[in-house]
Amino acid sequence: MAEESVLKNKFKQGYADVFYDQWPALTGGLLLGLFSILIVAWSRPWGIMGGIRNWADWLFYGLGLYPARPENPLLFSGSVMDIGFLLGTFGSALLAKEFALRWAPTLEMIKGLAGGVLMGVGSALAIGCNVGAFYTPLINLSASGFPMLIGLMIGGFIGHKYLLWELEKFPSKAAFVPAANPGGKIFDWKSVQPYLGVLVILGLVLWAYVYAGRAYTEIGGLLLFGAAFGIILQRCRFCFVRAFRDPFMTGEAGIAKAIALSIILGSLGVAVLKWTGVRPESTYVISAFWGGSLFGGIVFGIGMVIAGGCGSGTLWRVAEGQLKLWAALLTFATFNSLTTTFLRSTGWRQRLGRAVFLPDVFGWGGSLLLIAGILLLWYLLVTWNEETNKFTVGL
Amino acid sequence: MEEVKADETLDARGLSCPMPVLKTKKAMDNLESGQVLEILSTDPGTRNDLPSWTKRTGNEFLGEKQDDGYLRFYIKKK
């Protein structure tokens, strides 16, 4: 009947809007900001690096390099968030038929490894990646987010200059022939993906209930929050690298603007939670102000441009099947673990910086105004550059 | 989109962000006005990146075509 097919078309259109088309950056930014507040209210702020380091710690513990047994990855908050993130992204990619094991030419794979090394070292110095040392700290009113912002901008610029140089030095690459349709002619792998995606998402929800059933409800919630962050980022193809590279590369400022607004929104919410005492003021106030954040940010910024993904961006691309980023994740995790262990054992970790809670210095209102002010300045700068292309290199 | 005859083809398959756009930029520099560049890509992000870059640089985005495991994009130089 006519009504049925209209309903069916509406469903198809709705599905396409949500699962096939890329979400706008601003939508992603606002959702991220909202969930960043909710997760703090639930348990703890969002992070990426902690979980990844935990996995690398287990690798080195297994190899006999580390004496101390790391935390249980199924109960450690950082690890559970990342597991949720990966699975959520995997499900989202499947629903959008975007999962595929994507090989990359040798030079790209090397860049993945090298970029990951820089990201690993940089995030150890900054005590966090783009999320854990820039985005989340600012939302949690930690001064360390500001030098990280500057470091990432500098690193992004240097990384971009490297790519331009590489483009000239290695102009043509051997044409890459993709593998014949994986899955063969027996069945259409692509059309099966959405159903697998549904299974993955259902599995996530079930797993959260399993946690709840064993009195680990809070951890189960973190699994789902991680998945939510992953899905938001994957659907938007949200990439912090773009925020710091695109203004120099194409002049585009979309992601930078979305992040700026996202942080302003998130900081408002978390300020409320901290002021009312729901969470301790010291939560996520990172002891890296300002040397660790600045220099870690520069190193991380260069690495993420070369690798083609930041901390969160690497993870969602891994779940999409991009093998270059698998290489990056490998060195990212291992080098962060090794560098952190090194910094701890030499006592140099203390030298990275201090923990500075902005309201201690500027008061609550002053801190929110400062954060909003600096981010709006960034917003204006990139928007101005979008029109004038004054900072764009090689356009 | 109807059949388009490409003057140059850039094979960016296997490359991930931002390489397809950077290489497109370079390839377009070598084209004459009115010529068409065809770009092959496996990176999902290219679907948004290329039209966006094309618009920003004042070129004409002609369209995309799905092929076996990759996409073909067509840009006409202004």
General description of the model:
The complex is a heterodimer of chains A (395) and B (78). Chain A is mostly helical and 395 residues long. Chain A contains 15 helices and 2 strands. With 78 residues, chain B is an alpha+beta fold. Helices cover 28% and strands 29% of the residues of chain B. Chain B has a 4-stranded mixed sheet, covered by helices on one side. The longest helix of chain B is centred in the N-terminal third of the chain and has 11 residues, at 19-29. The interface between A and B is medium-sized, with 36 and 26 residues.
Short summary of the structure?
Chain A has about 400 residues and is mainly alpha-helical. Chain A has helices at about 1-20, 25-40, 50-60, 75-95, 105-125, 130-140, 145-170, 190-215, 215-235, 240-250, 255-275, 290-305, 310-320, 325-345, 360-390; strands at about 285-290, 355.
Descriptive labels:
heterodimer; A: 395 residues; mainly alpha; two-stranded antiparallel ribbon; 72% helix; B: 78 residues; alpha+beta
Cα radius of gyration of chain B in angstroms: 11 Å
Strand order of the largest sheet of chain A: 1-2
Indicate the structural class of chain B. Answer: alpha+beta
Strand content bin of chain A: under 5%
